[in-house]
């Protein structure tokens, strides 16, 4: 189907889907490439804004507000393409294409025991992230669901090396309810890598976890939670490294490469002539015969 036969709604759907599928760190590149194909600035700008908002939530895009890291996710969306930051108490829009905060507004929060616990958990999580991640970011959010209070801890670290033809992202999310005595922690660890030197290779690995955590007091809960995250992420990392170790160069070649029907190597014509005992015919016949030999040799 040609570009001209698509309806506007179909174009919007295709553009949005392609942009959302862009690997971490490559959204702007995908947008620029699509702009060259679509050639509709107004359409691309609108779809880029919509898809960029979803891309930020999907990959926990990090920002810095007042010197504090903020991770964007669907947990701190407050509607109308706006995000909310608990530390700065600000709501804002984020333009991923321009890498720019927009329409910043103050946003109040209720200061209660849960808010105090959120800050304590954030401090404990920062100590862990600073010790284990080169350029990691973390954030702890609050959420109320049916009068039940939850804390959502998010961790993100990435390395975008476009010049070296690879990009990689590590992120995890941990949720637990504010319960007395015992609470269940639900976690998800996600790793994505994209290699595009000589081969277009996408790797996605994830793991879902459920663990119980004893609640003694707020300080002890925060420390136990940070230890739990450290333990589970270390186990996950060791398992990933072990799996990748088994993918030897020979195995990768078998999976990623295919035997080509044409081998483009220099042809030793003298050896061919000698092996076939080729007799020099008149010029026209020699050319025809040589072409048949050449085709058979290549195939």
Automatic annotation (TrEMBL):
One of its GO terms (molecular function) is actin filament binding. Pfam families: F-actin_cap_A. GO terms for biological process: actin filament organization; barbed-end actin filament capping; cytoplasm organization; spermatid development. Keywords: Actin capping, Actin-binding, Phosphoprotein. One of its GO terms (cellular component) is membrane. InterPro entries: CapZ_alpha, CapZ_alpha/beta, CapZ_alpha/beta_2, CapZ_alpha_1, F-actin_cap_asu_CS. Transmembrane segments: none annotated. Heterodimer of an alpha and a beta subunit. Belongs to the F-actin-capping protein alpha subunit family. F-actin-capping proteins bind in a Ca(2+)-independent manner to the fast growing ends of actin filaments (barbed end) thereby blocking the exchange of subunits at these ends. Unlike other capping proteins (such as gelsolin and severin), these proteins do not sever actin filaments. May play a role in the morphogenesis of spermatid. This is F-actin-capping protein subunit alpha.
